[in-house]
From TrEMBL:
The keyword DNA-binding does not apply. Keywords: Hydrolase. This is Alpha/beta hydrolase fold protein. Residues 24-265 form the AB hydrolase-1 domain.
Length: 279
């Protein structure tokens, strides 16, 4: 692990995987996990010559909390990481709650992004014309409702609803994928690390994703974007990616008919190929 300082003195925890000196890809993890979250089969990175870079968003793991942060605010943190690692132009991707943060970086720093990919990504809470909670798993609907009522209500809701236990946060349809030994081992470690210092990261993430405006317009993204979504996803219904694809100028949407939310694991190798320039 490496610790990087932001301009306002916060700490960001960063991890690297794959090939040192390889082609850099910056990854934004889902909610609520940590920098230890990633595609768990390392050969996907080593065989492609990828230097995979992950980080704890503020409040998760070893990264200092940043209460009140919006999705757009994390873009500057990602830029600080890129500066510290001397990265000039590179691919960016994110899964689920990490997807909006990957898009935020692309919107704010297009000159530094070659391509951006998001898998099972949420749309903005204030997305015009989108019924945001339609077809959504009840647990996420409840969190969104609590987040809309503010930090105090959300904090109480998450404390009562969690434990936290990862399996309790996912519908039964997702259990088969996360039960795969490599996935389960990685997710357990990534989930536990997320709560090293409490629930601040989770609370701030849900407020940013479920209640606050993102702080940027997806229509302003000028770099190529690939969106992937499983049509059986109930954690983040596929209508979210439909909405994003209709608004991002250079966007390609891939919908997987038989996949749920956790299907993003199996979609990662093709996503990596696309990020590296294979269409």
């Amino acid at each position: 692990m490496r610790e990087i300082k932001t301009r306002d003195g916060r700490t960001l925890a960063v991890e690297e995987w794959g090939v040192p000196g390889g082609t850099p890809l910056l990854y934004a993890h889902g909610t609520p996990v940590s920098r230890l979250a990633r595609y768990p089969y390392d050969e996907a990175f080593t065989e492609r010559g990828i230097r995979q870079i992950t980080f704890d968003r503020p409040g998760y793991g070893y990264s200092t909390a940043n209460p009140g942060r919006r999705v757009a605010d994390v873009a500057a943190d990602m830029a600080a990481i890129a500066d510290a690692l001397e990265l000039e132009r590179f691919g960016v991707y994110g899964v689920s709650g990490g997807g909006p943060h990957a898009l935020a970086f692309a919107a704010a720093y297009p000159e530094r992004v070659s391509r951006v990919a998001v898998l099972a990504c949420t749309a903005p809470r204030d997305a015009e014309g989108l019924d945001w909670t339609a077809d959504m798993y009840q647990g996420n609907r409840d969190s969104a409702t609590a987040a809309a009522q503010g930090r105090e209500v959300l904090t109480a809701h998450l404390a009562a609803a969690s434990g936290p236990n990862l399996k309790d946060l996912l519908p039964e349809a997702e259990q088969a994928v996360i039960a795969e030994p490599a996935v389960a081992s990685m997710m357990q470690a990534a989930f536990a690390e997320a709560f090293r210092n409490g629930q601040d990261g989770w609370i701030d993430d849900e407020l940013a994703l479920y209640a606050l405006p993102w702080g940027f317009d997806p229509a302003d993204i000028t770099v190529p974007v690939r969106l992937w979504h499983g049509e059986r996803d109930t954690l983040v219904p596929p209508a979210h990616s439909d909405w994003l694809a209709a608004r991002i100028p250079d966007a390609t949407l891939v919908r997987e008919p038989d996949a749920g939310h956790a299907g993003h694991f199996r979609a990662t190798p093709s996503t990596l190929d696309w990020l590296l320039g294979a269409d």
